Amino acid sequence: MPQAQRPLRVAASRDLGPQFVNNRHRMVGQDGAFSIALDDRETLWFFGDTLIGTRRPGESIWYIDGKAVGPRDMSGRGTFERMINNTGLLLRDRTGRDGLTDFEYITDSKGGLKTLIPLEGNEHPDRDRMWCQHGCAVGDEVFLSFIKVKMLDAPGPFPVNFEIVGSGLSVGRRGVWDFKRLTRDGDSILWRADEPHFATAFLPAGDVVYLYGTVKRGDAQQAYLARTHHDGIGHVDRYEYFSGDDRWSAKVADAVPLFGGMPSELSVSYNAHLGAYLAVHSLDLSGQIVGRTAPQPWGPWGAPVVLWTADVPPRDKPLPYPTLIYAGKEHPTLAADGGKTIYLTYIEFEDYFPHLVEVTLQ
Helix or strand or coil: residue 104? Predict the structure, then answer.
């Protein structure tokens, strides 16, 4: 348990650039980038939309022949051969000091990148997307969380637009990587659009697993907390939700917010150097990646401290949409010196690769 807690302050930071650019699958962009510890040797990285093909130099990847890509699947459009939702790779690097180079993508029987949570029934790639969140390994079982979104053919500030349908969980086995969605009353949406979308982050802590979920309430995105026994992740009806003042409830409606300010994604880990739990997330869409600490998984959580500010270099040709930086999070398995040095990723929408940053704390 945390004891003497150090203040969260940055001593130094450096940019290690976009990761996984050099790969043998002609992968030219992917977002999300959640990492899940499997054992002392391997970490599973889990991504959202993934593009296969080539890029046209000097052109936005989100505008094909001068038109916004809109809701449609990008497979076979422009220079893109395929768009794949929720792909994964196995990473063997134990530090990010020199970038991430020792990795192997999870592939299907034909050697192509594999969709880990495929569409089902009447779901269609021009309308439905399954986007990764986080996950947790319990022995050989691996749980992956997701949000399901409906793509919208409606104008907006960005070249794609969507609404969240809800979130859920899937379970598969390590080495097989075939994931099946968990259902409740025949529905794989376990938390509705207006409920916290569990689990944006998993935090294993002994026999307990804490699950953080985020949802927009009014004008603000807020984080909430659930917990379960480590062997009960697949039994959602047994979850308890933090309802304030050391109280837990079986009803998600009783959950109270812990903190806010993230677009949707975040990470939470215990940092031994700080003697505290550390949450890392993008600060809205400002380009800042922030951290905040707490003595317990439920808080009280401190104010956000800027860990890194993304610097997007000027482009020869201005983008036809606002700069979009999101998906900030930490990858605890890469941390060094007991968490004194940590590694973060974020996504800049046009660059569209996980961007790695090393942060050394005071």
Answer: strand
